[in-house]
C-alpha cells in the first residue's frame, strides 16, 4: 500500500520535534464571541495521545465553549482544528464523532425511559432482518465494550433507575461505542458522591492506559493533581498558563486561574507568639495519661483555651489517648483576675 502523504502543516502550527508524537488534537487560534463576550480569544491547545489533560479556569473562563467548538456544537469565529495531524472540518457533533471525538456533558443527554443498551446504541441500533431493534445484539455489543474498558453496567436496566455514577458510565460507553479515542468530560465530578468520584478516577486511568485521550474540565484542583498528566489554565477566554502536572503546584494553578496570588491555609503567614495572655498555675492532672499541661498561652489561644475549659480538659491539651481530669482549674488572663473553669 502506498504510504499516505503527510498533511501539510499550517503556518499557525508551531514546529515540533520529530521525536514527539503527533498530537491527538490541536486547536489553533480558536476565537469565539457571544455578542460582547469574548468567550474564546485566540486559544491554542494540544492534546497528547493517551494523556489526561485538565482544562481549568474560573466560571466563565471559556472552557466549555472551547470544547463545544472542538465537538462541533459551536462554530468558531476563527481558528483551526487538527485531529491526529490532519486538518479537520468539524461542523456538527456527527463530524466530531466520525473523527473519534466524544463528549460527556455536564447535564447528561440520556433518554431516561430507555434501557442502557438502547441508550448506548441509539442512532446506530443493530437491526433484525425485518428491521426491528436487535436487542440481543445490542446488549451483547455493550457487554463486550463494558468488559473491554472495565466499565460495569447492566445493559437491560432502565436509565431512570440508575444512580448518577452509573448514568455517567452509560454516557462514557455511548461515546466509546461511537469510536471515541478522545473523550471530553465537562465537570464530571460535580454530580458525583465521593465514592463515585474515586470509581470514576480508576476508570479514567484505565481508559488512558488503553490509549484514550481524556480532557477533564474541572474547578477542583486536588482532582487535577490526582489525575491529570498536563494542565491548561484559562482565564477570561484566554490560555494563561499550563504545563506538566509535576511542574505546577496547586497554589500556582489557582494563581493562574484568578490572576493574583491566592492565600490558602498552607500559605498563611507565620506569626511570632506575643506576650502570654493567659497563665495557669498549679495545674495538675489526676491521671496524666495522654495529656500535657500548659503554663502560658499567647492571646490568639485564649478563645480556644476558654472553650476547652468547658470540658474536662481545663488547663490541659490532650495529645493522645483519653483526656485526663485536672486537679487544679485556676487560670489567669493578662490584665484580669483569676478565673476558674466550670465543673
Ligand atoms: N450560548 C451562549 N450565549 C451567550 N454567552 C455564552 C454562551 N455560552 C457561553 N457564553 C459566555 O461565554 C463565556 C464563557 O462561558 P463558558 O461556559 O465557556 O465558561 P466555562 O469556563 O465553561 O465556565 P463554567 O466553569 O461556569 O462552566 C461566559 O461569559 C458565558 O456567559
Ligand atoms: Mg463550563
CATH class placement of the largest domain: Alpha Beta
Number of helices: 9
Average of per-residue pLDDT values:
82
Strand content: 15-25%
The helicity comes to 25-40%
CATH hierarchy: architecture of the largest domain: 3-Layer(aba) Sandwich
Main structural class = alpha/beta
CATH homolog superfamily of the largest domain: P-loop containing nucleotide triphosphate hydrolases
User: How many domains is the backbone divided into?
Assistant: 2
Shape: globular
Ligands in the model, by name, code or SMILES, are: adenosine-5'-triphosphate, magnesium ion
Distance between the termini: 91 Å
| Largest beta sheet: strand ordering | 6-7-8-3-9-10
- Computed Rg: 29 Å
Polypeptide structure, described:
This protein is α/β, with parallel strands linked by helices and 343 residues long. It has 2 domains: 25-266, Rossmann fold (3-Layer(aba) Sandwich); 278-340, no CATH class. It contains 9 helices and 16 strands. The chain has helices at 63-70, 93-98, 116-121, 135-148, 164-177, 194-209, 221-227, 250-258, 302-309, and strands spanning 25-34, 37-47, 52-56, 78-83, 86-88, 101-104, 182-186, 213-218, 230-235, 238-244, 278-280, 291-293, 296-297, 316-318, 330-333, 338-340. The protein has a 6-stranded mixed β-sheet, sandwiched between helices. Strands 2-1-4-5 form a 4-stranded antiparallel β-sheet, with helices on one face. The chain has a 4-stranded antiparallel β-sheet with strand order 13-11-15-16, with no helix packed on it. It is globular and about 90 Å long. The structure holds adenosine-5'-triphosphate (ATP) and magnesium ion.
